[in-house]
Amino acid sequence: MTDTAVTSPPDRTESSPAPAATGRRFRLAAVGGQNISLIGALVIVLALFGSLNENYLSWSNMQVIGEAATLVGLLAIVQTVVIICGALDISVGSQAGLASVVSAMVFTSTGSSAWTGIAAALGIGVLAGVLNGVIIVYGRVNPTIATLAGLAAYKGVAQLVSDGRAQGYVLNDSVFVFLGRGKIAGLPVMIWVLAVVALSVHVLLTYTDIGRNLYAIGGNDTAARLAGISINKYLIAAYALCGTVAAVAGILLTARTGSGQPVSGSEGLELKAITAAALGGCALKGGKGGIGGTLLAVALLGALENGLTVQGINTFWQNIAQGALLVIAVVIQQRRTKERRIGLPT
Q: How far is the C-alpha of 103 from the C-alpha of 326, rounded, in Å?
């Protein structure tokens, strides 16, 4: 008869975590540390301004915040896609302004045909996005430089065709009124548009081969190329998507203001979009990021901007706060990646 060794069950306190602790860690991992920080910051901002002004947390003001954040949110979503690829698009605000002007001018010139104006705006958005991608891919121009040129060029075209003034009047059309001021289930249509775009892009990035390939390109473009991914096609497609959604933002800008706006309402949106994407966890070198974090950052920026406005604080301070948040987001990224700081030894 052979002796068999009897082993005692492992001590849970030493070798395996308790189920409750494991569950907590799983839930935290699912949400993400970056998102938890954003949620905490959002709660603090809401609580702070809510204590300073009793109307700040009202349902009507929450809708105002949502509508105001819609344009930034749309551009931040597609900025997230481009940044995941390891690129950047500084021209999205100018593209939105150009699309706004085109939608109103075509609407007026075609005898008040809203859908023709919307189609023209979407067409100009796709064209601008593809042009950005082609310049970057085939002109071998750095994305920052190429889209910085686009920022100036698209803004100039919008001012040229509109003579630098607001164009058209669209609030006599039911389609534009519905887009700018209508509601579905008690929520503004603009917020529903943002939700549909956000969900669509989230599904694209998370559950499709296209999304996985975009992350692969941003994470390691050499490995992606060796794996057979057509990087050039993906980059052009990403910028085309960026231009399309920027055009949607421009159409909503027209619907909200009642006319085509070449600059007013769209200027500065690119910086807000980049700030939101960076705050939301996008690595500016590519390969990392998600729509959930970006939307939380958009909500935080919108709540902060609205709170400062309600308190009557000078808009110049809002710009300073926005710039500071972008710097903070990048510093946090650098710390997390442990990348060597410029000018200092490793």
A: 32
